User: What shape does this take?
Amino acid sequence: MAKDYDEPPSVGQLIAINGKLHKHIKQLEAELEQYRWIPVGERLPEEPTNPDGVQIELFALDGNIRTMWLFRCENWKESILQMGYTHWMPIPPLLK
Assistant: This one.
């Protein structure tokens, strides 16, 4: 009698597929973590070391999203907190 279906994968094949899927999921989670909205209560951006500053996105209490350049100065952390920003996100570098 002819079969109307393919043979199911073996247990070994399923284990190999499962391992590949878990590895890919971990990679995707790492990418998401890199560019997510970070609560200012969790941490603030690193102090800019580049003389040209660092560009970030900021989410404010009023629901607006703003792009801001951070430059190295004494009160940059206080500025973020005092202006009512709740979350921030790094902007990826431009492609070359």
User: Anything to note?
Assistant: The chain has a mean pLDDT of 81. Residues 2 and 8 are 16 Å apart (CA to CA). The chain has two helices and four strands.
